Amino acid sequence: MKKNEKKSACGTAAGLAALAACLVLAAAAGAQASQKIVTFKQSSKGSIEKNVESLGGKVTRKFALINSVVAVFPDGIKDSSIYSLRGVTDVAEDKYLRWIEAAPASMSAAPLPSVESALRMIRTGEGWTAPAFAEIRPEIDPAEKEVPWGVKRVNASAAWDYGSGAGVKVAVVDTGIDFNHPDLAPNYKGGYNAVAPAEQPLDDQGHGTHVSGTIAAVKDLKGVVGVAPKVDLYGVKVLDKNGSGQYSWIVAGIEWAILNKMDVINMSLGGGSGTEAMKQVMIKARQAGVTVVCAAGNDSGPVNYPAKYPEAIAVSASDSADKIASFSSRGAELALIAPGVNVYSTKKGGGYTSMSGTSMACPHAAGLAALAVGAGAKGPEAVRAALRAAAEPLPGLGPNEQGAGLVDAFKLVR
């Protein structure tokens, strides 16, 4: 026997036993576990874990408020086998998806001129407007320097003499929050990390930090100020550094917000489909008196999930000209429209930046919802009614583009 043959346990005639062992190990390594969200009847709650184990599965996450568990099954187990377990009503793949999509910072509803009109403008001057000379104005009040255009557009500062959200608990269910940011730290009260439960919900992506500033940046004549600058801010991390997450992470985040008695949940995230577990936890939020505000979506198409659920206050995006942003999703599910183009807010790691999307519109509405709670609205239906009563339809837009319209914060709290 050659020396090099002796070195391979799986390559010699004498090593048949070792070869068999290698094949078994290779097969085990090649097998892929399948993670599912299993929903079941209340009557089966006590036996569901044992039933999952009977198929070789293992429960990896339990939910306190809904009759669902997350379980890992061997690759060969089909959904039909899981459905055969006593009391099972739904089986969904616990997909890992991207839930936030950035929109171009300058995108709005204004159409670009055609080639023909541009050439005509050059030849004839038709459609051309002479540049205006800068008007000499007195120095701007320092307080105005920190108010982003969207916060101004919803007239938030006019409401602050009557209430600015003090004592209202708002959870940002997103990529986490940079709770060390000087404009967020004073209002930050804690949170939860559904991605890595043993860790703090620190933002490693940036999206959640930007969203949080629009809701809750403090009014200190520095940086920016949010719509509701005195709320209690909580970070609930359900998305990772890629802006992606599993359905179960989002469900766990919403459940945490309910159990910890949040008044308002902001979800600036969305996808093309939901799950039975997500539907059920949204119902639980409404029953618990939690107002859930959701971004409509950035694909110019139908409203995304979870905004599509009737329990959600779905928000589309407007630009500074009061037009609907071209990227904004549309549909009968919309409740409101809010500023969502070139929104200036807090940046992960310190500083500030502009972003666009219904993700940026949503926190304007969530901040307004917090003001409504502070003004006495109790529960999601009362908050929805207050927002609707304080909204004005934008000219040229229909209900499928703006819902009830753009909310005036002053009307909301008076």
CATH structural architecture of the largest domain: 3-Layer(aba) Sandwich
**Helical amount:** 25-40%
Mean pLDDT: 87
Pick out the low-confidence regions: 1-31, 106-143
CATH superfamily of the largest domain: Peptidase S8/S53 domain
In what range is the share of β-strand residues? 15-25%
Quaternary: single chain
CATH level 3 topology of the largest domain:
Rossmann fold
CATH class of the largest domain: Alpha Beta
SS-derived structural category: alpha/beta
Detailed description of the structure:
With 414 residues, the chain is α/β, with parallel strands linked by helices. The chain has 2 domains: 31-94, Lrp/AsnC effector binding domain/regulation of amino acid metabolism (RAM) domain (Alpha-Beta Plaits, 2-Layer Sandwich); 143-413, Peptidase S8/S53 domain (Rossmann fold). Helices cover 30% and strands 20% of the residues. It has 15 helices and 17 strands. It has helices at residues 3-6, 16-30, 48-53, 79-83, 115-124, 142-145, 149-153, 156-159, 207-216, 247-259, 276-287, 358-374, 380-389, 399-402, 409-413, and strands at 34-40, 58-62, 68-73, 88-93, 96-98, 169-174, 188-193, 232-237, 244-246, 264-267, 291-295, 312-318, 334-339, 343-346, 352-355, 391-392, 406-407. It has a 7-stranded parallel sheet, sandwiched between helices. Helix 10 packs parallel to helix 11 and helix 12 packs across helix 13. The longest helix is centred in the C-terminal third of the chain and has 17 residues, at 358-374. Mean pLDDT is 87; it is low at 1-31 and 106-143.
Features:
about 425 residues, alpha/beta, Alpha-Beta Plaits, Rossmann fold, 2 domains, four-stranded antiparallel beta sheet
